[in-house]
Sequence to fold (338 residues):
Amino acid sequence: MASTSTTTTWPIDATPAERDRIVADFKAALRETGLVVPMATTNLFTDPAFKDGAFTANDPRVRAYALQKTLRSIDLGAELGAKVYVFWGGREGVETDAAKDPVTAIKRNREALDFLCNYVIDQGYDLRFALEAKPNEPRGDMYNATTGHMLAFITTLEHPDMVGVNPEVAHEQMAGLNFFHNVAQAWEAGKLWHIDLNDQAFGRYDQDFRFGAVNLKSAFFLVKFLEDVGYAGSRHFDAHAYRTEDTEGVKEFARGCMRTYLILKDKSARWNADAEIQALLAEINADNGFLTPLTGPYAPDKARGLKEMTFDRIALGARGLGYERLDQLTNELLLGVR
Ligand code: MG
Fold:
């Protein structure tokens, strides 16, 4: 039962007493249901005070207020047992570059995250940060627009070991990118600490559809990756039911997200066990070891040997790789006919 997650929030204008009552009610609900809080975050984008951003706003009072709001929220996240703290800077950007210098914005963002990392260390909280990227909406252009940008930015922080990423399907697809590739890069960098699952058609508004609702095959390769590598974080659905739905429809939506994930997990196991698919993969990746002595880590002899080697370029180009067959077999497996 403890594997399910939930979140709480209190109004921005709540008095300390109201805030305490809401948190107490929430804690009681956690105890009653066995739900846990794996992540926490701060809303630094809805209130008009943040219309020009939070950590990157031009007004120093807004930047300080954003820090104050986040410090308070981090305290609650730690109190509720969250292990990951997500940052989505919904207003960290511009409509016109006349308004803000992007280099200044990066420096302000870094200063805020360094401040907050040091606060977490000071308090002794067991909390890591996960940065979530988005290219645009609700601003014309947002800073650190993709997961790749975030990964590069993290290396410039004072405590890079405390900071990873929270890629969201829709946000990367809005940028026209391959979400699975971005997730794989984050994983390879040891930075995939959280994930937001939903779905999105390219070129549309931020749809946040039910997981797998639009790009089933992309969702399949994503799930297969998460399961194959043993991703141990939350499978977090940051999505919304269609606005056409009543309460039953919203439940269908929530069930649908989870069912599609689990069905694709089952399909992944079938794909890995499919003899024909695996034989094709073995053939595609065949390696007789002949070139191993000349490749891998650099050595002067290897460079000399490679320069002297004769390659049959025509034969290399003439070889068919069988990817059409491999992809069709994948489609047939997903369509349920194998
Ligand atoms: Mg999200």
User: Anything to note?
Assistant: Strands lie at 39-41, 84-88, 93-94, 128-132, 141-142, 163-165, 196-197, 236-237. The longest helix spans residues 247-273. The pocket of magnesium ion is lined by residues 88, 132, 168, 196, 238 (CB under 6 Å).
